[in-house]
Amino acid sequence: MYTARSVVTDDAISGQVDLHCHSTASDGILSPMALVSRAKSAGVTLLALTDHDTVSGIAEAGQAAAEQGITLLPGVEFTARWGRRVVHIVGLNVDCMSAALIEAVSVRAALRRERAMEIARRLEKRGFTGAFEGARRLASGDEIGRPHFARWMVAEGHVADTAKAFKRYLGAGKIGDVAVLWPDLADTVASIEAAGGAAVLAHPLKYGLTRTRLQALLSDFQRAGGAAVEVVCGQQNPAQTREILQLLAQASGDERPLLASLGSDFHQPDQSWRALGCVRLPPDVEPVWNLWQTGASK
Prior knowledge:
seven-stranded mixed sheet; 9 helices; 7 strands; alpha/beta
């Protein structure tokens, strides 16, 4: 297992930075090695692999990054609960062998398997025979998510594309939308901190919250020990970026300021709005990688 936490040098931030992406270890379609190669081609010099609720791709990505001359931050994107809302917390530069991290991953693996089996049961009742085994074959490991069911449905000719699979069967309010009691936000942040990492609130504008509720989320996240917020996630318009920056400024107050993170949220090559290395932080923000930067070049 690749366990090395990284120091960020000047060279590491000399090109593009991407701190949120997914491989076949969760619901991406490129292997960790292929993802790193694609990041290299895109000019990425500092990369974090942040698969959903697993670090199983980090070893392969770490080896590939060393060969390609990329600095890799071992990462994970944890699913968490904030009240009744599901939110995603990215852990950056974590120790993959930390007992706290291993436990957090293990808990979610069990929850995901239970959810996958229930999704399959519901689909079977609708006549989609072999859903669980089909989705499992498309998943590289034990990480089975709704995208795997969607891809299986496409492969079997049940729907024309994955978007239709979600619209008809797997999206919010559909038969495949199975509620899960995920670990709460505070416990999730604590697990990341115990693993030596920094907790980052992922894509804050994607939760469909009102401004007031989003302020409350940021406040609770900050009080729990959260370190940073994704100011940019994939291609977004300047107004969205300004909105997040305003919320960060309001959230800081007398508390420790929240740092800025960014990432493409890359899953597959044909989504240009999520291309590896497609994002940049605006000027005059303090980036999360300052937590690990030495200021020295190799």
